[in-house]
UniProtKB/TrEMBL annotation, chains A, B:
The keyword Transcription applies. GO terms for molecular function: DNA binding. PANTHER family: HTH-TYPE TRANSCRIPTIONAL REGULATOR MJ1563-RELATED. It comes from Halolactibacillus miurensis. It comes from the Bacteria. This is HTH-type transcriptional regulator. Keywords: DNA-binding, Transcription, Transcription regulation. Coiled coil: none annotated. Belongs to the GbsR family.
Amino acid sequence: MQPESYLTDDVINEFSKTLELFDLSPSDSRLFTILFLNHQPMTLDEMSQTTGKSKTSVNTGIRNLSDLNLVNQVWKKGVRKDLYTTTDDLFQRFMHYYLDKWLSHTSMQKQSLSSIEKKISDRPQGELIETKVKQMLIFHKHLEKAFIQLKTTCQEINDDDRIS
Amino acid sequence: MQPESYLTDDVINEFSKTLELFDLSPSDSRLFTILFLNHQPMTLDEMSQTTGKSKTSVNTGIRNLSDLNLVNQVWKKGVRKDLYTTTDDLFQRFMHYYLDKWLSHTSMQKQSLSSIEKKISDRPQGELIETKVKQMLIFHKHLEKAFIQLKTTCQEINDDDRIS
DNA sequence: TTTTACATACAGTTTAAACTGTACAAACAA
DNA sequence: TTGTTTGTACAGTTTAAACTGTATGTAAAA
C-alpha cells in the first residue's frame, strides 16, 4: 500500500473518532478504518506497515475486532497469509454489537440487583438502601426499554436502506 | 459515614458497572454511586474517606461529574465545605448527557466528512476514497437518525414515569 | 523428510492514565 | 489585621494499558 495522502489521513482520523464512541480503543478504531478504506482484504503485514504498528500489535487488534464480529477473515486461493476485511454494512454491524453489549449488560444487572434486593429485604437493616436499589432497578428497566426500542429503530433504518 | 457493609459494597460494584457503559471511568462511576447511595449531600472529605481515595482525586472526579451535569453542588447554611449531591432522575440525567454526546459528535463528523468530500471531488484522484467517504456519511446519518429517535423514546419513558 | 513462511505466545519496555502529597490561594473567623 | 479552613494547582509516583522483539509452534512447500 502506498503512503497515505494527508487527505486520506484526515478521513482516517475523523472516522476513527466516531468509532471510539462505540468503546473501541483509538488503535482498534484506526485499524478498522484503514481496513475499511482499503479496496481489498489485507494481511497482517500490510496492516502493520500501514498502521505503523508491530505485527503483534496488529494481530491483537484484529483479534479484538474479530471477537466483536466487526471484521471478517477471508480466504483467497494461492494466498497463504491470513486475510481480513470489513463489510459495507457498517451501521448494522456496529449497532448490533453495541446493542448486544447494552442489552446483555442491563439484563444481567437487573438480575444482580434483584438478587441483592432480596437479601436486603430478608435482613431488614436500612430502609434507605432498599429504596435506592429499587431506583436502580427502575433505571435498568428504563435502559432496557430504551435500547430495545433503539434496536427496532435500527431494524427500520436497515430495511429502508435495503429498499432504496 | 460508617464503613460499608459487604452488601452495600455489592450494590456499589454492580451499579458502577452499568455507569461505566456511559463512558465514565471506573473511579468516577464508583464515586457517583457512593454519592447516590448517601442519604444526604457529601463533602470532599467525606467522599475521600468513603472512596478511600485522596481528596485531590475525589476533587477531580467530582469535577468530571459536574462537567457532565451528573451531580449538583448544594449549599447549606452554616456549612463551609462544598457539598455535592445527585438527583433521583438518574435515567433522564444520564441519557441526556449520553445523547448529547452522540448527537453533537455525529453532527460534527458529518460536517467534517462533507468538507473532506468536497476537497476530494475538487481534485479527483481516487474514485475509491470518494465512495468510502460517502458510505461514512451515510453511516453518520443513520447514527443521527437512530439517536434522535432514542431521544424521543427517552422522553416518552420519562413522561410515562411522571404520570404513575 | 527438511525448509520456509506465517501466526501467535510471552517477557520486557514504553507510554499514558490515575492517583498522592505538598504547596499555594481564596474565603472566612477572630 | 492575623490565623484557619477549605478547594485546587502542580510535580512526582504508582499502576495499568499498549506496544515491541524474540521465540515457539504450525502448516504449507520442496
